[in-house]
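Let's practice the habit of predicting before peeking. Look at the sequence and jot down your guess about where helices and strands might fall. Then scroll down.
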Amino acid sequence: MHPILFKLGSITIYTYGVFVFLGLILGFFFAQREACRLRIDVNKFTDIIFWTALTAFAGARLLYVIIEYRWFLERPLEIVFSRSGFVFLGGIIFGLIPLYLLTKKHKISFLKMADCIAIGLPLGHSLGRLGCFFYGCCYGRSTSSFIGVLFPSNSAAGMLGEKVIPTQLISSFFLFLIFLTLFFLRKYKRFSGQLFVWYLWLYGFFRFIIELFRGDDRGTFWGFSPAQIISVILILIGTYIFLKKRRSSLNSARCIL
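Done guessing? Here is the structure:
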C-alpha cells in the first residue's frame, strides 16, 4: 500500500487519484478510437463523454453518501471535503441518463455510443481498482490463505489487523480481461449495442460474485449488498436489449421471407 505517490512542497499527489486519472485518459482514448471506427463525429463524441463522465462522478458520489448516510449524518461537511467515497455502479446508473439524452440531442445512436464506452470503461475501471489497492479501500474478507494481504493499520483495510483478500487486485485483473475480450470481439458484433450488452453481462456477473468476498460493510437489502442488487439490474438491462434486438432481427427476417 502506497497512498501518497509523492509530494511537491505543500502539494500532495495521491496514488489513488493518479490511477483514476490514468484510467480516465486511457479509457477515453480507446472509446474515442472505437467512435472513429464507427464514424461518430469526434466533437460530438467528446461533448457527450464530458457531460456523461461529470454526471457519472456525481452519481457515484451520491450513491456512496446514500449507502453511508449514518456516517455522513455525523459529519455532514465530509460530503463535500472527503477525498474518498465513490460507488462505481452509481456512476453507471446516473451516467446512462445524460448519455441517452445527449445522443438524442446530437442525433447519434445511443447503442453505438454505448458500445464505444463499453470498450474504454473496463480498462479505466481496472486502473481505478489499482488505486483502491494503494489507498486501502474496497478490501476483501479476512483470510489466512497465501493470497492474503496485510495492510497498514492507518488504512481502512488495515484496521482489522488481519490479512484480507485483495479484492481490488482481483477486480483489476478481471476488468482488464473484460476489456481485452470486448476489444477483440468488437469487429465481430452483429448489431449496435452488442458490446454494451456483453459488458453489462460480464461485469454484472463478475461484480455479483466478487461481492461475496468483500469485507467492507456497506449494508444489505434482503440479504444482498447494494452492488449485487444493481449488478442483477445491469444483467437484466443487457438481457432486455439483447432480446429486443433479437426480436427485431427475427421480424426483419420474416419480412424478407
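How did you do? The radius of gyration is 20 Å.
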